[in-house]
Amino acid sequence: MAKPVTQFACTSCGAVHKKWSGRCDGCGAWNTIQEEVPLSAGPSKQSLGAAKGRKVALVALDGQEPPPPRTLSGLDELDRVLGGGLVPASATLVGGDPGIGKSTLLLQAAASFARAGRSVVYVSGEEATAQVRMRAQRLKLSDTAVRLAAETNLRDVLTTLEAEKPDLCIVDSIQTMWVDTVESAPGSVAQVRACAHELTRFAKKVGTSVILVGHVTKEGQIAGPRVVEHMVDTVLYFEGERGHQFRILRAVKNRFGPADEIGVFEMTGAGLAEVANPSALFLGDRDSPAPGSVVFAGLEGTRPLLVEIQALVAPSSLSQPRRAVVGWDGARLSMILAVLEARTGVGFAGLDVYLNVAGGIRVGEPAADLAVACALMSAREDAVLPARMVVFGELSLSGALRPVAQADSRLKEAAKLGFTAAMAPKGCKLGGTAGLELKLLPDVATLVGDVFGAG
Ligand code: TYD
Ligand code: MG
Description:
- There is one protein chain.
- β7, α5 and β8 form a beta-alpha-beta unit.
- This protein folds into three domains: 38 residues; 201 residues, Rossmann fold (3-Layer(aba) Sandwich); 171 residues, Ribosomal Protein S5, domain 2, CATH 3.30.230.
- The chain is of the alpha/beta class.
- The protein has eleven helices and 21 strands.
- α8 packs across α9 and α8 packs across α11.
- The strands form four sheets. It has a nine-stranded mixed β-sheet. The chain has a seven-stranded mixed β-sheet with strand order 15-16-14-13-17-20-21. A three-stranded antiparallel β-sheet has the order 2-1-3, with no helix packed on it.
């Protein structure tokens, strides 16, 4: 029999290489290539169909399944992001930049779980018990029945958990855990994968909800192979700008509920406080609006969120004028500038353009296009939009405005916060006006001509 040929596969993108190398040519990731034995060289070459297997029971799609049981963590914002509470026997990964507040959030969740009479074990691989205790003291959570361990050896952790069988177990962080069956160092792809696998298996077997903390790489992804994200049931990201006190918990994957849901927190001297009405927080003082400032009626998950978009346009002394964006996509700004120029003749050549989403939140929705175009025009023409007006709509390359989803809930949120007018694309399906005065526009030329008198 021919000697089995080993090959090397990237754990990130799956590309197969003949030789090991530090960097995958396929996806450019570092340290993701691992040796594996290809299937054809395995012990049995015969086709699987010929082998005798066990017949698997097939069932119809329409069986009645009860919804998964849930336990509320007591932190409303966290429960909302999880889709209505924590599911037993599930694994959740919480990622985020260092220092953003993951340990704080999870300690608070652990404490509030324990207060509800459930058993909680908090395993810290990063901090000594004294440090975690100090944090608990500062957060005034020392009196809760959370049980604490500072350990990185996963074998010991699992033995302890098997004995305790807690309702909730928090592992902070997955990158510090190691198993002795894998030779590489803690934090390496192989270790992270093995540890996440063991912990997920434990969760399914015993019925514990396991929450793993994961570090993110410079590119903002959870460090270690993407397979960890596939392994767990729910992936949450905890994000925020260093200079701002707002923190956003975002579901990017959820097997038990909607993804894209967000929870908003505020980092205070006494830990994370839940923010029930984030729109009010992200909006500054609207009594005396400045040119370039526009309120965008956005949507985060199922939740309407009003944010202020600010633009500044100033004569440039550079041969290549500056385009600076905070909280929005830079490429999309270039696109809107190009559409304005091509479809209405309003140019920004020779002008520096700065765009900022206030409050440190990141807007990813194309529905913000119209608000951005408005902010740019308002800054360029030095014209102020009505203070109590919200704007939303997507811009296509032809200059036409496209309707966006859930226009009604955007309008309702605006009305709730005291806004009296809204600017939106003409084609929007509206159930009602929510009491707002509506200005419906067909295209960007109407915006520039009718609203700003330019072009
Ligand atoms: P931490 O939870 O340790 O972050 P992570 O686990 O994501 O690395 O949070 C660290 C930051 O939070 C630290 O810079 C201090 C700040 N913080 C507060 O502002 N208030 C508090 O009550 C606590 C506990 C932390
Ligand atoms: Mg931490």
